[in-house]
Amino acid sequence: MQDQTLPTVALSALRGIACRCPRCGGGKLYSGFLTLRPNCEACGLDYAFIDSGDGPAVFLIMIAGAIVVGAALIVEEKYQPPFWVHAALWLPLILATTLLPMRSMKSLLIALQFHHKAAEGRLIDREPK
Q: 57-74 b/e with 16+ CB inside 10 Å = b?
């Protein structure tokens, strides 16, 4: 029988970064690069609740943008290289800072969504005044 106590935020985040099931930490979350499994192979958690949307991409674009733009401005100011050098330097860095951490960022947001029991917004049913 699985222990149903809620893990700490740090443990949930570590499970997310490791791309593991947010409930048990044992089963794999993905069946492909970003394709989720239908459920956990270890505890049976149904992954139908998962909806990270564009969140992981937005976070990574903001982080990668700050890194790449900052580095490009420093290099331009110090060395003033031709544009082809900028392209050769920054295009691989953009790909590395966005594609490589995408799985971990998506699973981190999924784990935090599970931890905080996040759900779609609903209107409160109440009596009119």
A: eebbeeebeeebeeeeee
What pLDDT does 5 receive?
76
φ, ψ dihedrals at 32, nearest 5°: -135, -160
Q: State residue 3's pLDDT score.
A: 52
Q: Which residues of the chain have pLDDT under 70?
A: 1-4, 126, 128-129
Q: Phi and psi dihedrals of 94, rounded to 5?
A: -60, -45
User: Over the chain, what HEC string results?
Assistant: CCCCCCCCHHHHHHHHHCCECCCCCCCECECCCCCECCECCCCCCEHHHCCCCCHHHHHHHHHHHHHHHHHHHHHHHHHCCCHHHHHHHHHHHHHHHHCCCHHHHHHHHHHHHHHCCCCCCCCCCCCCC
Q: For residue 36, list its beta bridge partners.
A: 30
Instruction: Give strand pairing partners of 20.
Output: 28
- Distance of alpha carbon 51 from alpha carbon 55, whole angstroms: 9
